[in-house]
Every structure is written in C-alpha cells, then in structure tokens.
Design a protein that fits this description.
Strand content: under 5%
Structural class: mainly alpha
Shape: globular
Distance between the termini: 43 Å
Oligomer: single chain
Largest sheet: none
Amino acid sequence: MATNRTAREKKTRTARGSWRIEGVQTSFWSGVLLAAAVFTIIDETILHLLLHWHHFYDRGSPGLALTSDGIFQSIGIISLAAGAYLIADLRRRYVWRPIWMATGLSFGLGIIGLVDEILVHKILKWHQIHYGPEVWKYDIGAGLCIAVALLTGVVLLRIARRGGQDLRVGKSQATVDPASPDPEGSAGE
C-alpha cells in the first residue's frame, strides 16, 4: 500500500512539475500565438472577405470598418510570425514540445473564440457573426466550436502533463538532440 501511494505521489509531482521542464512554457505560448493567427486569418478571410458577413467593427463608416479589418489581419500576421519564431528557436535548441504547443493552440482557439463571442459580439456589439433574424443559430455554431476547442485543450493538457506518453505520433526529430545517444537504437533505420 505504501509503494502504491509513493508511485502515485511521484506521478503527481512529475505532472505538476512538468510546466517547469525546459521548452514547455514557450511551446505552450507558441501554440497560443498560433491560435491567435489561425483565428484572425480564418475569420478575416472567410467571414469578412469571402462571405461579407461582417467587419471587425461594424458600428462606423465603411472606411473605419475596412481599417479595423486591416488592424485585425495585422494582429494575425504578427502572431503567426511570433509563433513561428518561437517554434524555430525551440527546435534549434532541441526543446520543442509539440504536445504542449497543441495544448496552447486548442486552449488559445477556445479562449479567443469565447472572448470574441461574449465580449465583441454580445457586450460591445462591434459586430455579429451574421446579421439577420436568426443570429442564435450562428451563436450556437460558434459556441459548439468553442466548446470543442476547450475540451480538446483539456484532453491535450492531461496527456501533456503525463509526459505525452498516451500520444503515439512518433519521435520528432526536433526534440532529439543529435549529440545524445539514441536509447532505442533506431539510428540506423
């Protein structure tokens, strides 16, 4: 019984301490930056430019609406560049943690979507997803996407805190230092 408890305590300590492993925090935040990029680029391209459903700020002149779209798109591009830079730096130092990046991406998409849906659409009323008599249908669709992103983030966080052992996606070359010996002996494959 004491051995079982000790193993459980060790696993808990490892999971709680995983946030301090080199590369974990930066991998997570690179995922959040990529989430901001993905959200803004998809929203801008599909909902603003292709479908013409809304602009980022619809409560002003057409010129202000286009300017707000440009600023919104710029935020997405800057987030994409910053996230890519962080990932490149992590890979260069052989400390990139893809599972933590995916966790940050999922939580980032969910939280950014939640802020957009509640703050921008409902409280500030800068724009709706789509104007018309049945806005609630679009709100439900957005809510489902947000819930899926947040639930995916929770699942990925559980996997990441266990060390990613439940994910069988192969070994990333970026996380393996070429100077260290290969413990599995797969260098000749």
